[in-house]
Amino acid sequence: MKKRVAILGSTGSIGQNALCVIEALGPEYEVAALTAHSRYDLLAEQAERYQPAVIALTHPDFKPGYEAFSGGFSGSVLYGPDSLADIAVREDVDIVLCGVVGAAGLPAVLAAAGAGKRLAIANKEPLVIAGELLTRRAAENGAEILPIDSEHSAVFQALQAGRPQEVRRIVLTASGGPFLRSGRQEMEEATVEQALAHPTWRMGPKITVDSATMMNKALEVIEAQWLFGLPVDQIDVLIHPESIVHSMVEFVDGSVIAQLGTPDMKTPIQYALTYPERREGVAEGLKLEEMGRLTFEPPDLEQFRALALGYEAARQGGSAPVVLNAANEEAVAAFLEGKIRFGRIRELIEQTLETHTVREHLSLEALLETDGWARNRVRRLLELMETV
Ligand code: NAD
Ligand code: MG
Asked: How does DSSP classify residue 104?
């Protein structure tokens, strides 16, 4: 039976890796849909090569009749942000692979869960914002959520060595990013170029900045809470600069099961597609004899304050992670546009969290309202900064 895959965010780093994997897996896997936000040229190229039934351009500037697809693509073309959710529920889609960045993926992943699809999810932000809602909707509709985030794929694989009640804790590894050995002051003043120079992983700009602040790990702690149904106090973070051990699970008898591999997202993407089977790997194999040593150290929560903020938000629960995520998305966008220094990202998030009163068990509407409130708050703080 063919497995038809919709790739949401196919022009991004995860999306392009997913296309490589599907091509290597052979004819059993088929590209059913592709989407891009604004890179229509690359989307057109992908559409001509993979001939999906449908493609979508999500940026509101693109309107029906846009010229780019006149060439060798004969499927349908959708426009606007709502097209992601429309694609996620289509009958001719078996697996929804979400490689969109940020909260923008939320409606589509909720729709995929509601339609009982296999959801191969790289897009961590929806799990951070609406983990409770998303995992409940998936359970009610028989949808499977398979993590692509490398740490969560590692934990998912390691968990197969025991039963849920036998887990003592999970340990998410973190590379530490480009500023692991920088002084605090140097890190505060870092440039966009320095923040984008990740030592081990090649990823899109937003998650690369998140890795530099370690907000990425903060989001991953909350992501793990929902994916694995564990309280935050059973989720630890360990710095592992070589990015070979992708994460581990410690069981009650003291056994620690880890998953290792090269730092290449094709491995977790492939596993989320082929699970429960394993196939010949697309990524290069691991040569531990060439690695020398693998090292581990605890994170410095004073230097990487974003990680501490993540733990606090996770403990508070309810709307706190929504605010954490939305404030971070806005602050990172401002940093990437050159409007603020690196250290200001964390300050903006902290200032936004400080003025928020946490609410629990929110509906989707209330979650989105909180998300909007936090974004406005950051924009307002940025405006105030410009006027002084
Ligand atoms: P990217 O910036 O390279 O790609 C993002 C994709 O999403 C692009 O196809 C873009 O067109 C689309 N997009 C952007 N804004 C959008 C919007 N508002 N609406 C709809 N589509 C939009 O990002 P990436 O590095 O591939 O990361 C994608 C997601 O996967 C993120 O949530 C990230 O945290 C997660 N992730 C990525 C990696 C990695 O190695 N890149 C690893 C783990 C997790
Ligand atoms: Mg990760």
From this structure: G
